[in-house]
Amino acid sequence: MTAKSAAAAARATVYGYPRQGQGRELKKAIEGYWKGRVDADALRATATELRRTNWRQLAEAGIHEVPTGDFSYYDHVLDTSVMVGAIPERHRAAVEADALDGYFAMARGTQDAAPLEMTKWFDTNYHYLVPELGPDSVFTADSTQQVAALGQALALGLTARPVLVGPVTYLLLAKPAPGVAADFDPLTLLDRLLPVYAQVLTDLRTAGAEWVQLDEPALVQDRTPAELNAAARAYRDLGGRTDRPKLLVASYFDRLGDALPVLAKAPVEGLALDFTEAAAANLDALAAVGGLPGKRLVAGVVNGRNIWVNDLEKALATLGTLLGLADRVDVAASCSLLHVPLDATAERDIEPQILRWLAFARQKTAEIVTLAKGLGGGTDTIAAELAANRADLASRAGSALTHDPAVRARTAAVTATDGRRSQPYPERAAAQRAHLRLPLLPTTTIGSFPQTTELRTARADLRAGRIDSAGYEERIRAEIGEVISFQEKTGLDVLVHGEAERNDMVQYFAEQLTGYLATQHGWVQSYGTRYVRPPILAGDISRPEAMTVRWTTYAQSLTAKPVKGMLTGPVTMLAWSFVRDDQPLADTAQQVALALRDEVNDLEAAGTSVIQVDEPALRETLPLRACDHPEYLAWATEAFRLTTAGVRPDTQIHTHMCYAEFGDIVQAIDDLDADVISLEAARSHMQVARELAGHGYPREAGPGVYDIHSPRVPGADEAAALLRRGLEAIPAERLWVNPDCGLKTRAWPETRASLENLVTAARTVRTELSAS
Description:
- The chain has 29 helices and 20 strands.
- The chain is of the alpha/beta class.
- The strands form six sheets. It has a seven-stranded parallel β-sheet with strand order 1-5-7-8-9-10-11.
- Strand 18, helix 26 and strand 19 form a beta-alpha-beta unit.
- The relative contact order is 0.09.
């Protein structure tokens, strides 16, 4: 096909779409089901209607081929485990008794069975459920869900393409099941898994699928020759079968690198590549292999992970370069639109001119359609859209919001000594022990406590004008008083104020910093039914006034025990926001760090002796390629130190991280120079404690003994067993006892019971240590 005919054939498509609905209908239906207010048929009806609404929106916008299989009740990787029959033995009976309840049991756990481990989907803030596999794993095909979704779309008269997690990525994301040797490699199960995928593909072809997309984002990471050979074998096997649909193998989030020649040679009909995060690298690599003659190329030229309007002319130039490198070039977002909110037009509190800078899922869909139209019909066919786009880009570039001379002067004045504590850790530790006088194995929590119905009602009443700020603050004081009282009665050693005043750990701060925009309806799925509204980091950042001091000092006035000041760290403020794309991330991180440094210093001046600066996103934001790690980790750790280094030696700095593969960044954790770190460890059975010990981590650490992402209450014996396992790696004088994460999403009954058991476990193990 000539470049001209490839352009004329251009079509618009997407890989996935937000699942929740305009009013988060899916969240409400699922949580209603868990509470017994919604039955299974009503939940399924809600899901059916949401899928129908999504597909119709896409088709009416001009998308030529809609995705199916991207919708999920909880997580698409968990759906894949169900599809291939990879059900943990402890959940098998529940799944056999009731498929839906068993599915949620794998995701959330039950009182008798722990859930699957949860961690981040590559370098995003989306969490997936980690498959558990072993040498005895048996796979069986169950394509019911995938076939049903395809059938629903086809019945609406739509052209539909099922989207599945590819077999290589699925195995690379998996971990050894409990009881399996830690060095077991799930990729050794590939030959056992491929016939199951082949059966699913056959089922989808029989159901009417012309194309099926197999997502292989794991191939954009550094891969060994053995892993690349496995990918080649997988697609040689699947592509060589005759009873299958056409195959589109998709990658995203980075450059495909050494995997590109492997997939280009594979007997598949198409590839989908990311031309936003790694446009130049993927273009060069594609040219180097001679293009994709006779194949379909889906070009992800619209950023699927950020919310800024696309530079349409730049994207068209990229698309024009791709013409002639494939038999057919289609236009798409760089990845699933799952990672952005649904519709920017729902925002009423953002200035109209600024709103024109923003593109959520529906606006990105329109951009994709416009680009496909321009690629096929020439720029004259989209002249009006191009002119409007140029004006929007110029408006943003010239806005006073994006450039604050005072902020830039302050960052320019930063020196290396600003990011260094005044004394080395051993001297600080001695000063802190003398000042805080904590027991062996001190107990604490990560920060947030359950947000009660009364508190949520008060927040809604304040927004609606039914109460004034004085009435709302009275409710906050009451909540803080209850939280402090509970912690003292339970026997916790270092207390928190519970964060009653905070709607979200990033949004709360963003709303008080200049340069940020907040949305009212910009919900994005984090995991399961947990949705967040990432704020928009639009301009230069500064802190007009103290943000947390008043509530922290109020809580401290209620107790003689130390109360932690609680802040969100600079890297997490970036990772859990939609960041500006007009300057390096390192520059933005430095601006945020300086604003937070002012808050840390004010907390200390107000008498706060323990200050926690959470950085759960430090690992999440790690680039996917190892060659990019050093630069990122250098500015990320420097931003944390810039935030925290201005305090006295006897002020104890904590940090917290959760739900990521921390073994990859142990040196960076060390480089933060925090006095205490708390980390998720319950679902991974203290793996992080062993990783810290293997590195020789010299400071204090609190690997979690209570999994807060499950409603189950761990018994005191269970928590004590985890604590003893932690002591195998970390000396008692440096070990803290705490949950995995904050308690905001939990209910009070389970929180009370779990924390009481946690304190009991700590006391039991203290007694054992004193007797030994």
